[in-house]
Amino acid sequence: MLSIGKLAKGQEGYYLDAVARGVEDYYLEGEAPGRWLGAGTALLGLAGEVDADALAAVLDGRDPTTDTRLRSSKGGRIPGFDLTFRAPKSVSVVFGLAEADIAAVVAEAHDLAVDAALGYLERHATWTRRGHGGVEQIRGDGLVAAAFRHRTSRAGDPHLHTHVLVANSVRGADGRWSTVDARHFYWHSKTAGYLYEAHLRSELTARLGVRWTKAIKGIADIEGVPLDVLGTFSTRRAEIEERLAIGGWSSPRAAEIAALTTRKAKQHDVDPATLRSRWREQARVMNFGPRQLAAVMDQQPTEHRGLAEVRAIEAVLLSPAGLTKQSSSFDRRDVLLGVGEALRDGASVAYLEAIADRLLCHPEVVALASQTNDVIRTDSGRVISRASTGARWTTRELLALEQRTVDRALARRGTGVGLVDAQSLAKAVLALPDDQRAVVEHVGSSGHGVDVLTAPAGSGKTYTLKTARQVWEASGYQVIGAALAARAAAELQSAAGIPSSTLTRLLGRLDRTSMEPNTVLVIDEAGMVGTRVLARALDHAERAGAKVVLVGDRKQLPEIDAGGLLAALAERMPGAELTTNRRQRERWEQQALRQLRDGDVDRALAAYHGHDRITVAASYDEALETIVGRWAAARAVREDAVMLASRNQDVASLNRCARTVVAAAGRLDGPELSVRGLAYQSGDEVMTLRNDARLGVRNGTRGVIGHVDLDQRTMTVAFSTGERATLPPDYLDAGYLAHAYASTVHKAQGMTCDRAFLLATDDLYQELGYVALSRGRLGNHIVTVGELEHDLESPPHAPTVERDSLDVLRSGLSTSRAQQLAIDLDRAAHFSSMPSADLIRERKRLTTIVDRAPTDRTADLPELIAGRDSADQQLRKLQHERSRVHMPGRSRGQSRAERDRVIDRVAADVAHHATAVTEAEGSTTERSRYLVEHASDVADLRHIDDVIARRIDETVIEAEDDSDHYLRRAVGTPPVGSRRRQVWRDRARAVEQYRMTYAIADVDNPLGLKPSDTRQLVAYWAMLQEAKVVEPALLPKSLRRNGRGIA
Length: 1047
Hints:
Blueprint: E1 2-6, H1 13-21, E2 35-37, H2 39-43, H3 52-59, E3 80-86, H4 89-97, H5 100-124, E4 127-130, E5 136-139, E6 145-152, E7 158-167, E8 170-171, E9 177-178, H6 183-208, H7 227-232, H8 235-247, H9 252-261, H10 272-285, H11 290-295, H12 307-317, H13 332-342, H14 349-360, E10 365-367, E11 374-377, E12 383-387, E13 393-395, H15 396-411, H16 422-428, H17 434-445, E14 450-454, H18 461-474, E15 478-483, H19 486-496, E16 500-502, H20 503-512, E17 519-524, H21 531-544, E18 547-552, H22 565-572, E19 576-577, H23 587-597, H24 601-610, E20 614-617, H25 620-636, E21 641-645, H26 648-664, E22 669-675, E23 678-682, E24 685-688, E25 702-709, E26 714-719, E27 724-727, H27 729-733, E28 737-739, E29 742-744, H28 745-748, E30 753-760, H29 766-772, E31 776-785, H30 807-813, H31 822-832, H32 836-851, H33 861-882, H34 896-933, H35 935-961, H36 966-971, H37 978-997, H38 1014-1025, H39 1037-1040
Parallel strand pairs: 14-18, 14-19, 15-16, 15-17, 17-18, 20-31, 21-29, 21-30, 30-31
Antiparallel strand pairs: 1-3, 2-6, 3-7, 4-5, 6-7, 8-9, 10-13, 11-12, 22-23, 24-25, 24-28, 25-26, 26-27
Helix pairs in contact: 1-3, 4-5, 5-6, 6-13, 8-9, 13-14, 15-21, 15-22, 17-18, 20-21, 23-24, 25-26, 31-35, 32-35, 33-34, 35-37
């Protein structure tokens, strides 16, 4: 296991003190306090045991021999990085309990594994940057590092681990020294940790003959070391986990903070022999003495089968259940992780890399273009940049499946499938609002074999589908529904009247029997359905000649399995979209949700913050108290309120606190039944967690306990669906019931309530936040926990990062987990590698093509129809009057010819209006047909816009951190405060957009020279005015040198 932290200025003193003292209380007697590692160390003439003065010099960015500076002092804010490699607990136990010779073998194996993993980081993650703003990446010649091996935890348990202190100095391929581009450390950290574990397993298998349990998340334990023994010697881990539970965090950064918070004072008088005696006595009490310890060694290792084993691993990783099970593409790191876990006894890092490279050359593997889309964050969680993630690959199986599915869906356009009676359709949509009417008209008259209905949260999806179902049934079609979750299928059936089941059940039935040709299949929440499952459903429908309507929203929770199909079809087949938010009452909240959905996080957060919808608690306990208190207050005024969180442990904490409040209010009565440590009484709100057809219950259904039978150990629950069920002991004891005062966000998708309260933790992301904040009609609130403070004198296990209280929300909500098809990923990556000037040119070309699409005039229909009806009414009146001798209001002398000419003019007017209505009604079809014909151009334009927006955001982020950045010359220094900072960012983005559009490279004058081109001149003056940019030439001479703009 590997974790990475930054040293704040001054934290290097911890290591320097340890070296100067010449002995560390963690060390076995006779061991050196540290050893130099890394190719960069050799460049400085350093080797062997670490010297305190030399370590102080390299951390300060100086050559320890000449005392000259290696890099600019600007990089001195971060002296270095602490890479901590931790052995599995079972290895530490063997190390701590074994005799000295065995312990030495374990320590040596650990050191070799550390060296091998660090070598991987040197080869793949050692980079620096050049150019203004660090835009050019340069490979480094190697790391300057010092390793310190420790043997115990702060709690005094055996805990073999090594701190590798990496100086923030690296020599580039051009011979210059500069700071390390540490983004790559974080990007490769998980892989390096897996490689350390695999290499360690290989060394210990060969040296001690141990065998291993199956690796889980890269970590395996030695077989034969009992779990209770591991628990006994995991006091430190228990302390950290308890702190994490109290703090409500789960990320690596949170674990580091928890480790600091629970850190005990060091004891410098620890006797290693006393420690060993104490450990052995603890183990003996657990019946794990020398004989049992010896038994775990000298085992028969797993037999390796050479090439046959490698081929078996390749077959598994390249199968649908392998590397592409949960993602449409993978990179070299993913392959290394998979191979490392597959080799139970481990292997050397060199061997693992060789197998990975062999797999990437496999005939089944297809290379995609390089990408630059991995989010890199500071340890506080803030997005700072994106590292070049290099090449990605996919399998021929998935690539062919995606391409075939997309092609077949496009081929079924306009095939006359699912067409409804025009009169029935016109009658059914009369009372519908504009967007719902347009949706029903589209799906009923498009004739497409596959239609996509985009339905944002709260847009009235089920009512729209209910109307569409009635129209189809009136035209003789059978309408059936399906969804990934049983709860969603039940909602589709009850609210829209569409008989529905889970997709699993439907596909199982269709594998045995075919679908009727006059069927319309509605798949709800299609955005959560993996590509392979969705493709099976589309195949069945095509074989039967049935219509499929995919209903979903790619901005809501993404697929768990490899996905992106719904988004891909929505881009290629412009379909129907519900556009009106019918759920949230407040106009500002509707707008904030739209901004959040569109990725405009700064504005959305500013709106929630400005309306007091965000609370930052000082501690996890305070956050629980706040959110439960507000939930209880909402319930007290009879609002349907729900608490939401992303993780099950947070939901359990909220439920526990809420139940205490409910019980104190006297809303629970009768006998109390204890199930798996939780108490249930009549009046408790509960949720079922598993489908059970025999009981008639579905996963995620909420209800209230009406009766508890202690003798039978059963509960009778009245569900929100109106159904009732008695839950037997086997269902309860299996853990399939939970309190429902709070819920995970995943179980809340599709839910509507009066008020929702989100406990926002460090695993928040854009789609999850959007779903959570769109549940409540009357209001949606965020409660989050401010970061723990820690003593800067603590050892450098974590950086100290200053941030405002909204940074964790901003960084989380700025991170999307939306999936893409591999066929789209390849195209997007192609544009990511293009220079900005070429991107702008390509964007202009594609915009010209897309802008040629016929105008959608459906918004003009109400006015056009009113004009047509008015002219038609006038014509009928004139025709009626012509049949009479005299026309009222006209002179008796008006001739029949004159009357006929008036009627002809009005008739022509009626015909003109009728033509305009027909053209407007057909404009949507014409526009859709054009956009479908140019689907690849539309998709390319979206990809380019995404790349441009990302590059602009990256530049703005760099400007926030770089006091000498050219954007600061244009819009000034970033102000303090979230609202003012948001305004600053908008201005900076506008300037960078202008620079990219007109290929301006001048960093001294951000807007370049005053342009002569008329169009650019208009944009130039807009920058001066709208973005509040001051042209340096227009400033008084006394102000020109500071280059400041107007904030």
